Amino acid sequence: MMEPVLGLINGLAHITGGGLPGKLPAVLPDDLAAEIEPGSWTVLPIFQLLQKEGKISGEEMYRVFNMGLGMVAVCPDENVAKVLECLPDATVIGRMIARSHGEQVVFAG
């Protein structure tokens, strides 16, 4: 399934325990950060239930859980359309931004 896009992406992160902030930096160069747009993908109801019943903050949810994202592919802007064409269930969840220091995964808004 991923074979058609392997030449189009720069990194692929399996989002497991540790969520986006814990897993995505492993595939990013030190001078880049991922700016994630919460709400750009559908969060499964189980995560909403966990947050409500566990009284867990939104920040903690994204730090601990994958929030329904199993894999995140990192690719240059010019390859996004082709990657989305090859992976019809994929969605854009953010963009890469310059980073000199600080967190490598930031949430917009």
Give structural notes:
The protein has 109 residues and is an alpha+beta fold. It has 4 helices and 5 strands, in the order βαβααβαββ. It has helices spanning 19-23, 45-54, 58-64, 80-86, and strands at 11-14, 32-36, 71-74, 94-98, 105-107. The strands form 2 sheets. Strands 4-2-5 form a 3-stranded mixed sheet, with no helix packed on it. The longest helix is centred in the middle third of the chain and has 10 residues, at 45-54. The protein starts with 10 loop residues before the first strand and ends with a strand.
Tags for this entry?
Phosphoribosyl-aminoimidazole Synthetase, Chain A, domain 2; three-stranded mixed sheet; 27% helix; two-stranded antiparallel ribbon; 109 residues; 5 strands; globular
In brief:
The chain has a single domain (3-107), classed as Alpha-Beta Complex (Phosphoribosyl-aminoimidazole Synthetase, Chain A, domain 2), CATH 3.90.650.10.
